[in-house]
Inverse folding.
């Protein structure tokens, strides 16, 4: 399942869209002087800086990089690394099929976090404890690259999965900074409940959520809007739309399959919901991406 590559050279590549042939690839690169320029991908990519420094341009935003920085590149992002001193990178590339192979506790939330991380510029690690964890995981992944024993592939999977959990937590921290400084912990619990039950409409009714958290319906509505600036049902609809867009953009699922997944009666009902929220129908959106 793994594609493993060693690139000890400096290349210039004009912008083009790249794909991967396996669910996950591990790539080691050492770049001496020339930049890796203007590449766009159809998959996710974690870029860890082992050594060196320079600049990264990400969707038009320029940031410096140094050793122990970690970058997340999502599908369709455009990026360039301009090297100042010789730099070693470890690249971990993965697609949606890799995410689907594992029994994540909250796959939808993880996938949505990754797909909507384009607002994060530069190093995604801001918490010291996360930096320590990530560096340890990267060092172990590097040590396992040349090995081919019986359980080595499973070990790499576990290491990459642990890395993805840390990344998701870091992205969540960025999102929480958009909330009021005195946000209530109950709000985070309610949001997590919504993400956990996004496929089950009956569990997302206001009366059901209010009973789950032992608060009145009227208070729940006021409380939720005060925390994030939008109504409870608007938040649920927008989150569902983001997941549906991800299905249409990054998978080969048919519209009826997406409708079944999100508990719509059929593709027509899903299309009506999608057009109301997005302003375009499913076919128009799918053709545009």
């Amino acid at each position: 399942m793994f594609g493993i590559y060693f690139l000890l050279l400096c290349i210039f590549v004009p912008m083009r869209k790249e794909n991967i042939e396996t669910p996950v690839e591990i790539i080691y690169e050492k770049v001496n002087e020339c930049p890796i320029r203007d590449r766009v991908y159809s998959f996710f990519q974690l870029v860890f800086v082992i050594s060196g420094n320079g600049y990264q341009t990400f969707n038009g935003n320029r940031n410096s990089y140094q050793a122990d920085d970690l970058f997340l590149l999502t599908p369709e992002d455009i990026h360039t690394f301009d090297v100042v001193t010789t730099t070693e990178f470890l690249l971990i590339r993965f697609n949606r099929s890799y995410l689907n192979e594992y029994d994540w506790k909250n796959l939808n939330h993880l996938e949505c976090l990754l797909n909507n991380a384009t607002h994060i510029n530069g190093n995604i690690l801001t918490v010291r404890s996360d930096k320590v964890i990530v560096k340890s995981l990267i060092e172990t992944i590097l040590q396992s690259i040349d090995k081919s024993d019986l359980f080595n592939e499973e070990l790499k999977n576990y290491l990459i999965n642990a890395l993805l959990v840390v990344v998701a937590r870091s992205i969540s921290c960025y999102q929480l900074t958009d909330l009021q400084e005195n946000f209530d912990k109950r709000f985070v619990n309610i949001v997590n409940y919504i993400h956990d039950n996004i496929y089950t409409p009956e569990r997302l009714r206001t009366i059901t959520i209010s009973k789950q958290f032992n608060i009145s319906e009227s208070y729940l509505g006021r409380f939720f809007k005060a925390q994030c600036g939008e109504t409870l049902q608007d938040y649920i609809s927008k989150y569902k739309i983001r997941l549906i867009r991800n299905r249409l953009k990054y998978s080969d699922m048919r519209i009826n399959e997406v409708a079944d997944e999100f508990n719509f009666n059929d593709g027509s009902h899903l299309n009506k919901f999608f057009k109301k929220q997005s302003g375009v129908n499913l076919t128009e959106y799918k053709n545009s991406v």
Q: What stands out?
A: The radius of gyration is 21 Å. The first strand starts at residue 2 and ends at 7. Confidence is low (pLDDT under 50) at residues 4-14. The chain has two domains: 2-176, 185-288.
